[in-house]
Amino acid sequence: MLQTFFLSFREVFEAALLVGIILTYLKQSGRDTLIKYVLYGTFGGVIASLIVGLLSYLQMSTSEGAEREFFEALMKLIASVLITYVVVWIGRQNKNIAKNLKENVDRRSSSIGLFSLAFISVLREGIELVVFTLASIGKNSFETITGILIGLVLAVGLVFAMFKYAIKINIKRIFKFLGVVLIVLGAEMFGEGIVDLFEIAGEFYELLLIGIYFVSMIILFFDEDLKRIFSKA
């Protein structure tokens, strides 16, 4: 359950944060009439994510035996690749997330533009969560769903409190912590996915793959911190 909780919290937190920044910027810049289109896009992104999740789960649940095992292993590998993308690329973008979003809002200051901005932002996080869920739902469906719901509620509640009551939270530290958690989960999925997909026998190989993924991702994730440390040294 902890696995899906952290994955859910991370994805929903970012999606809610993006929408919150867009709504706040529109309100501050006196474009309140455009807020409804952002809400429409957010709702549309949530619905589209649920549809993708439902169709994917139905596809997975109807498969049996070797086909199901292949599907689960493939989902684990895809999830580990997505985690790499999230940690390395999106993690770097979070430094200027507010500035980048405001520039996007100014460029897309129309009903269709803002609808698509919110829709794509939410759908991207939703699809990532779907893949992460499918990669771990085979273990225990009830615990998986419970972890997702708890992570969702806490993420939305935290972002709501941040914007509603002007609570100051170090977002960079939150993403750093969640980034490390994602690396740990991604390493496990990568190791299990490779071993299951290619039917490699032996726990040693799985641990080796987990270690390779973890070390390489940690170096990429903390590359700037490491550069600062070595430059001072």
What does this entry look like structurally?
It is a single chain. By secondary structure, the chain is an all-alpha fold. 86% of the residues lie in helices and 0% in strands. The chain has 9 helices and no strands. Helix 7 runs antiparallel to helix 8 (203-221). It is globular and about 60 Å long. The termini are far apart.
Q: Figure out the total of helices.
A: 9
- Low-pLDDT residue intervals, each spanning 5 or more residues: none
Oligomer: single chain
Q: What amount of the residues lies in strands?
A: under 5%
Category by helix and strand content: mainly alpha
Q: Give the count of structural domains.
A: 1
* H/E topology pattern: HHHHHHHHH
The overall strand count is 0
Helix content: over 70%
Distance between the termini: 42 Å
Shape: globular
For the largest beta-sheet, the strand count, sense and barrel status come to: none
Q: What is the alpha-carbon Rg in Å?
A: 19 Å
Main location: membrane
GO molecular function: ferrous iron transmembrane transporter activity
Protein name: High-affinity Fe2+/Pb2+ permease
Membrane topology: Multi-pass membrane protein
Summarize the structure.
The chain is mainly alpha-helical. 86% of the residues lie in helices and 0% in strands.
List keywords for this structure.
about 230 residues; membrane; globular; FTR1/Fip1/EfeU; mainly alpha; transmembrane helix; single chain; transmembrane; High-affinity Fe2+/Pb2+ permease; 9 helices
